[in-house]
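Field guide to reading this record: the first block holds the primary sequence, the second block holds the structure written as discrete tokens, and the final block holds curator observations. Each block starts with its own label. This record concerns Cation:proton antiporter, catalogued under organism Candidatus Thermofonsia Clade 1 bacterium.

BLOCK 1 — SEQUENCE
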Amino acid sequence: MSVLFAVATGIMFGMGIYQLLRRDLIKAAFGFYILFTAINLFLLASGAFEGVMPAYVDEQNRTLGTTSDPLVQALILTAIVISFGTYTLLLSFIVLASRRFKTVDSDEIDDLIG
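BLOCK 2 — STRUCTURE
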């Protein structure tokens, strides 16, 4: 299972970097979103524990086996909230730039400023 996580994370990082290098700002924003998702998958893969029971069982059942670590779940939820906020801010900057410069091509925006 860890090989599957590694391959999927690597492919998603590659797709995200490829989209970031595009000239269209909207496609670059999609690249950021793919990178955010790849980071969440990486956190999930690095914190995966082959425990017998989930982290939220009661004290009576904890003696039967080892439990998973709940910290990874909390980190992933926090990362999802932060990535949504960052992605929303990025999209609002793209909307402002497209309204001001009448284009979403990053090369044309550089030519207009320069």
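BLOCK 3 — OBSERVATIONS
The helical segments are 2-20, 25-46, 70-101, 106-113.
The mean pLDDT is 83.
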